[in-house]
C-alpha cells in the first residue's frame, strides 16, 4: 500500500518514502492527546531508537507528503488525531485498525457578531450560516463535517432544522502545502500546524471568521473550547449556543474522540511496533493525568487553546490514557453514521469490528509486568548487587 496510491481523480500525485520496517513514522493532529504529550516528553522516540528503529514525524522525511495524515497510505505509520479523517480512510481508502480513543466533551458553539441583536438559536431563523467547503479531492473535509454536524445538532435541540436557515458555502482551494520537495525536515508536528504564529488567522483554522465579521453571514460554527475564547477576546464575537453546556453527551461528537489508528499491514506483520507505541501512549497518558498543569503547558504549544491556563481548564477532567470504552466506541459510531448519512463517506463499516483492543491490552500487560519486575528488584535485590 506504500507509495503512489491511486487517488480519486488522478489529479494529485502522492509521495511516500519506500517501506522499511526499521523506520517508524507518527503523525499527530493539533489536539488533546497522549500522542502530543509524548512528543513533548520524548518517551516513544527513546524506546524505538533503543530498539534500532528510526522514529520520526511524518514530515521529517522530504519524500513524504502530508496525505498519509488523511488517507493513511504509509504502512509504517501510526496516526493520532481527530476522528473524521481516519473514518474516511478506513471507509473509502484502505483498511486500518482502531487502537485507542480520547473523548473531549466540548461540543461546539454558534458564533455571531457581538453587536447584533441575536441571543438564541431561534433568532437565526431565516438567517445566513456559513459552511466551509474544501476543494481538495483527496483529503477528508473534516472542517466542513464538524461544522455541518454542529449546526444540525444546535438547530435540532432548539426545535429547528436546516430548512429554517440559509446555508452559505465558502469553497477554498486547500491544495497547497501538502507536498514540497524542497521543504526543510519537520521533526515536531507543532512546527507545521502552528506555522506563522500560534493563533494565526489561517484559512483552515478560522476559515469563516472574516465572512462573519464582514457581514456575508449572520453566524458561523466554531470549536467550543479551542477557538471560542480567542474569538471572544476580540470583543467582536459572542456565542449564543454551546453544545458543551448540554447534558446529552451524544451531541458532542465534534471530530472527537481523538483516535489512534495504524494500517492493517502494520497490525498483522509487525504487531510489536504497535504495542511499543501504545505502551508509550499509556505512560504519557498516565503522566498527563497525574500532572495536569504540566501537561497543559506541553499541550499549549500543540493545540489551539488560548494559553496554558485555558488548556488546563479544557483537559482537567479528561482521561488522557487512550481507551476503547463502550462510550468512546458509541461516540465514534455517531461520527461515522453522520458522515455516511450525509455523503462524506461512501462505504459503511462496523465500528466494533474496526476496534482492535488486543494491542492496548497487550501494552498494558507488558507495562504491568515491567513495573512489577522493577518493584520486585527494588524490594528483593539480587545478592552482590
List keywords for this structure.
single chain, alpha/beta, D-Maltodextrin-Binding Protein, domain 2, 385 residues, disordered N terminus, five-stranded mixed β-sheet, 2 domains
Short description:
The protein is of the alpha/beta class and 385 residues long. The protein has helices at residues 34-41, 43-50, 68-71, 84-92, 142-156, 189-193, 209-213, 224-232, 264-269, 271-290, 292-300, 308-315, 326-341, 351-354, 357-379; strands at 23-28, 54-57, 77-81, 96-102, 109-113, 128-134, 166-172, 219-222, 237-242, 258-263. Helix 5 (142-156) links the parallel strand 6 and strand 7.
Please provide a written account of the structure.
By secondary structure, the protein is an alpha/beta fold. It has 15 helices and ten strands. A five-stranded mixed sheet has the order 2-1-3-10-4, with helices on both faces. A three-stranded antiparallel sheet has the order 8-5-9. A two-stranded parallel ribbon has the order 6-7. Mean pLDDT is 91; it is low at 3-10 and 196-205.
Category from helices, strands and their pairing: alpha/beta
Fraction of residues in H or I helices: 25-40%
So, CATH architecture of the largest domain? 3-Layer(aba) Sandwich
Question: Strand-residue fraction?
Answer: 5-15%
Unreliably modeled segments: 3-10, 196-205
Distance between the termini: 50 Å
Biggest β-sheet description: 5 strands, mixed
Number of strands: 10
Task: Indicate the radius of gyration in whole angstroms.
Answer: 21 Å
Supply the CATH superfamily name of the largest domain.
Answer: Periplasmic binding protein-like II
CATH class of the largest domain: Alpha Beta
State the domain count. Answer: 2
Total count of helical runs of at least 4 residues: 15
The SSE order reads EHHEHEHEEEHEHHEHEEHHHHHHH
Q: Which shape, going by the Cα principal axes?
A: globular
CATH topology of the largest domain: D-Maltodextrin-Binding Protein, domain 2
As laid out across the biggest beta sheet, the strand order is: 2-1-3-10-4
